[in-house]
């Protein structure tokens, strides 16, 4: 198989002018590339006693649920405001312009639960940091944050501060 | 383990007054229940030579990607308008009030590809029918439609007409 990065497609000016979007759909479409991603993450975390994989809407669901099932862990969705049906706790965080809010069910974790947080990509890191803080609010134990793609020039790793981060591919 | 239906939570008046929402997050959270769902679907489709599992945003991503990975198939997302970054084909369909549009990448399938379409739930069936039609527009071969929950009283199966449908749990 060719390199994993061959399956990441650059889309100029998406979602807006001047941004080069990293499209992971070719990677997901290739069962070999998708399996390679999952097997790599599985090997990293299989002995970490992960109780739950938390995935961020929407592409984080794709990476997170397959990994949860492979690890024999439960899957917990973290969603945009108003999407989760049960009682939630939420966190609002600043964007370049304006703000955004994410939510998690208040019964998603019990104190001490071992949680792996995943998303497809880290850019500026604001959403992942907010998600990590939500997990902390429930007193769960955030074992690691894993993403497929890290856009290093946007310094998401700095935004995350002391939160851990593993990325498969860096740009 | 108790019955799968014990892991589906009723949420009254969500997303709006008078609707009882079937919340699958307790099922996803339980690694046993989630594995049972995945193993059941895997057994059903493992010999069907599925090339791709297509999942509908957002909860269909959760069911679809784990199943794709388990089957050794690729995963293809079907999304709301404007969310997919590359060239798309789209389909607009009627809702009770107004309409909605879903999209798929135009290179998602080649003619004859064997596709399993999945979502978490079928209600009136409008979205799943539109997704099945999108798959047909790309001349792919829709092998089956699989959902975790079927709300029979909303007659989604009738909406689907001649499209096939498998559901794990019926209400």
TrEMBL record, chains A, B:
This enzyme's EC code(s): 2.4.2.7
Record GO cellular component, one term: cytoplasm
Domain Phosphoribosyltransferase as annotated: residue spans: 27-149
Leading EC class: transferase
Top-level division of the source organism's lineage: Bacteria
This protein's pathway: Purine metabolism; AMP biosynthesis via salvage pathway; AMP from adenine: step 1/1
Keyword Cytoplasm part of the UniProt annotation: yes
Subunit structure: Homodimer.
GO molecular function, one term: adenine binding
A Pfam family per the record: Pribosyltran
Name of the protein: Adenine phosphoribosyltransferase
Family as reported in the entry's similarity comment: Belongs to the purine/pyrimidine phosphoribosyltransferase family.
């Amino acid at each position: 198989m060719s390199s994993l990065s061959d399956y990441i497609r650059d889309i100029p000016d998406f979602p807006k002018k001047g941004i080069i979007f990293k499209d992971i759909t070719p990677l997901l479409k290739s069962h070999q590339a998708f399996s390679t991603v999952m097997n790599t993450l599985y090997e990293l975390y299989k002995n970490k006693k992960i109780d739950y994989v938390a995935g961020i809407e929407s592409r984080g669901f794709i990476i997170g649920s397959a990994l949860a099932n492979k690890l024999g862990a439960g899957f917990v969705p973290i969603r945009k405001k108003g999407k989760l049906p049960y009682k939630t706790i939420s966190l609002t965080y600043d964007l370049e312009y304006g703000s955004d809010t994410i939510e998690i069910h208040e019964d998603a974790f019990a104190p001490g639960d071992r949680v792996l947080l995943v998303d497809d990509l880290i850019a500026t890191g604001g959403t992942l940091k907010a998600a990590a803080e939500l997990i902390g609010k429930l007193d769960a134990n955030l074992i690691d944050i894993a993403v497929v793609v890290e856009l290093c020039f946007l310094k998401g790793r700095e935004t995350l501060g002391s939160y851990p981060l593993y990325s498969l591919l860096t740009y």
